[in-house]
């Protein structure tokens, strides 16, 4: 099996260089090595990709469920065979630790297997109707062409969680991956699906600068849906563009988080410590669901903090390719500088209980204790290995603090009383809450998404089928039956 080779664009089944005059460099975040020189896409390339998608989509929508399903099963087999190559790309291009790269590769494969079932689960309805001799039907149809904009942190999975269900429901897709992850955010998926036999034009990838093609990508007449994953700031802008475009588009916005992990006074402290450690420091904290704030009831605060500090001091950091590394490199110079600025700010006025100096681009884990929930740092999403521990007077106070944020993506609560945990979980203003588990969790058959400034829309299961299809109400009135005269 030979390794995949890439050109910078994949449009209508053809690998080609972008036609913009600019090029950008794809760099390994740990070693700084140049991996790939990307000739950027132009606005004309975006147009060509959307046109190819629109043409290919019409015949794809008419194919049988079996013809669509088989593509995803084949793709999942190819991921199995190419696992080493895929994991290697995730380590080198997106600075993933091996642990995280393996998780991401598995998530994509599971997403493909879930997508294989979607053509058989996309159904219409026959509704009751009071009008005589009339039937009321609801047809479920693909939405058309779906635009995907994904971030660099979980590039392969965050592109694929739309790509898989979108293709499975009969749509075509154009991906614009993050500038810094053209391969793992898009081109690698295109290669996998090309090898799986997906017809040309159904999956297109345009890579390059958002400044050059961002607006054209979001406002083009052809796409009917924009699936955006990224920061709240950019997401707001994309949402506005989608509504103001000449042809209005539906939009799903999966945005930033500020996820609380709450430890109540009857919690199993070891389990809570394990979840806080992994949930904060996996992928060096660069996950939308990472734990940002640990909120602990006063009675167990000191005991919990002591155990957390001793666990986090054992966390391995450094070379992402080493099997035991949990904390690898900051993704790029911007992320590194931003995290160091937060750390300096925190050191100047908060109590640091774990820390250290960076080695190269690797920032070791940091914990600050006795933090006020209203502190601007605690109110900011730390996209790095920085954790804040906050003391709550009691359970009600803990809930108040958990909800005192503009974000509402994921959350967790630890207690050995299931009823108490459930009551607490349902009080949290978030799309997702895990009782006695970490804030980081994503499965292709469960609803994934946020409340408040964490966005709108849900991935997974039947929720993503609903997002990526449209309903068409059709009534059929038949000639009145002639009464039978005896
Ligand atoms: P970002 O918003 O800077 O970029 C996200 C994507 O948007 C990239 O592909 C980027 O190229 C593109 N983009 C930027 N400006 C654009 C424009 N004007 N037009 C079109 N596209 C544009 O975010 P990031 O720094 O890449 O990712 C980190 C953020 O993403 C964090 O806030 C994180 O919480 C969030 N995130 C959310 C989820 C979720 O599911 N809720 C998942 C992962 C990351």
If you had to describe this structure to a student in words, what would you say it looks like?
The chain is an alpha/beta fold and 486 residues long. It folds into 2 domains: 9-255 and 450-473, Aldehyde Dehydrogenase, Chain A, domain 1; 259-435, Aldehyde Dehydrogenase, Chain A, domain 2, CATH 3.40.309.10. It has 14 helices and 20 strands. The protein has helices spanning 43-61, 65-81, 83-94, 98-117, 155-168, 183-195, 210-219, 232-244, 269-281, 301-312, 333-349, 395-403, 418-427, 461-468; strands at 9-11, 14-16, 23-27, 34-39, 125-127, 134-142, 145-149, 172-176, 203-205, 225-229, 250-254, 259-263, 291-297, 351-354, 366-369, 386-392, 412-414, 434-435, 455-456, 469-477. A 7-stranded mixed beta sheet has the order 14-15-16-13-12-17-18, sandwiched between helices. Strands 9-8-7-10-11-19 form a 6-stranded mixed beta sheet, with helices on both faces. A 3-stranded antiparallel beta sheet has the order 5-6-20. A hairpin with a 6-residue loop joins strand 5 and strand 6 (134-142). It starts with 8 loop residues before the first strand and ends in a 9-residue tail after the last strand. It binds nicotinamide-adenine-dinucleotide (NAD). Residues 149-154, 158, 178-179, 210, 214, 217-218, 229-231, 234, 237, 254-257, 288, 381, 383, 409, 450, 454-455 line the site of nicotinamide-adenine-dinucleotide.
